[in-house]
Amino acid sequence: MGFAALLALPLAIVALTIAGVLGALLARLPPSDLWTALGAAETLFALRLSALTSVAALGIALALGLPAAYLMARRRFPGKLLLDTLLDVPLVMPPLVAGLGLLFLLGRNGPVPALGMELLFSPAGVVVALAFVSTAVVVRTATAAFRSVDRSYAVAAQSLGAAPWTVFWRVELPLAAKGIAAGAVLAWARALGEFGATLMVAGATRLKTETLPMAVFLNIATGETGIAVACALLLLVAALLMLMAMRLLGARRNDRFSRGSAAGCGPA
Amino acid sequence: MRLKALALAFGLLALQTAAQTAAVAAQDLHAYVGAGLRPPVDALIEDFRKETGITVTAEYGGSGQLLARFAETRTGDLFIPGTTFYTDKLKELDAVADLTVLVVHGPVLAVALGKAEAISSVADLAKPGVRVGLGDPQAMALGRTAEDILDKSGQGEAIRRNVTVRAATVKQLALYVLDGNVDAAIIGASEAAQNPGKLSVIAIPPAWYEAEYAPVAVLKTSAAPDAAKRFADFLASDAGLATFQRFGFPPAPKR
Predict the structure, then answer these.
(1) Per-residue pLDDT tens digits for B172-201
(2) CA angle A245–A249–A254, rounded 5-degree value
(3) Percent of chain A with pLDDT over 70
(4) CA distance A99 to chain B (A)
(5) Angle CA(A210)–CA(A211)–CA(A212) in degrees, nearest 5?
(6) Is there a contact between B136 and A108 if contact means CB atoms under 8 Å apart?
(7) Nearest to B167 among A204, A220, A222 (CB)
(8) With 0-12 CB in 10 A as exposed, 13-18 as middle and 19+ as buried, what is A99?
(9) Does B165 reach chain A within 8 Å, measured CB to CB?
(10) CB under 8 Å to A234, separation ≥6 — which residues?
(11) In chain B, whose CA is at the least distance from the CA of A224?
(12) Which residues in chain A are closer than 8 Å to B67, comparing Cβ atoms?
């Protein structure tokens, strides 16, 4: 028994399990049933809502996350270490717990009941839940991307008279762009698959706050697995497309807290 | 040498633990339990363990979710849903070895504190601006009951327009109305009983719904049918039913 052969068994187990999971989902329905389920109003609604809410959440995540990440990467200030830890909390928090916290924060007994009543149980509430998770991903990955950019470029630009705003916009951001893009894809993937926080903040209302993961959850209960499987496959296709995008952006896969990918680490 | 001895000791310890686990596992039951029944069932599981030494692991969730889980896995010893509707489905799957009806699982209209002025009957749910919470009709037992109530009230359409949110379990729904995030919700009488003073409770005319009964089914898939039957009998005993009553579930009429 050679060394490599010994190691091949665990690898085979892992690979076969993943292939088995994909195969089982694909083989669950006859093609005609799958086609019907994919065209069902509920599936199409969930697809539309998932697309809209995840893109909106990604927009919020980038608008808030990029400036925050730049500050974390380039400035020193008291309490930064503590803040750095705090920013990572949504990444390690179980989504259901995040949802419960958001529900209490936005609820009638929270500090902003008027705003909360507008957001809770609505598609806007879905966006809040998704943005909470994706913003943390953007902050984490973009901080790493900015840190990996050589500071001397910024210093040179400054010495040539560029204003801080110009340095950020014309020098630092383009240099970190690849890592930021990979992080954005990761954040979008997290937003698309988010379920636990959505359930608490937006509820499980069919054809109202029914994202793709919610549709999977609700339709398992009916015994009608058609729509559940169709939505699961749509999520899977989206995930595979994102994986490919990550590869193209040269990010290292497998690393949730990816150190960014500027400066060409990882396979291109 | 010492290392070898240590390794051997650890190995023996691991074996012993494995053997013990196996011995316990033979007396370890898995029960699917509707989330709304959690408080009494948790208490009864503890009493049963003290009395017999048999551990019951409960998996709580919406009854519909649990049914789907069982249909996929075909494992487990007991099924205790919020209504016999789900054990009927189990019978269709030919999965029930023994069935005992336990308690009445009746709905009430729960109104958030501070909204009692505006909402004093089911009809008031149709008023404009009222935020109503209901259960998903397929995911949880009382979701279906609530749909019947809405239909019978003659104001189904108007009330459905006010439905702000649907929940996957009755506990989630109770949380929403307790915090005032919805003004009113149709929840179990038991949830209301477990939160005295935190909700206003309005009775629903019994003619508007089929009373739901929560049963316990011993599953044909059970690896320990005798132990499972023992637990079912324990739930149905006078002491068991008294515990249910304490949490707001009255016993089902003897048939």
Answers:
(1) 999 999 999 999 999 998 888 888 889 999
(2) 75
(3) 91
(4) 12
(5) 120
(6) no
(7) A204
(8) buried
(9) yes
(10) A38, A43, A47, A212
(11) B68
(12) 221, 223
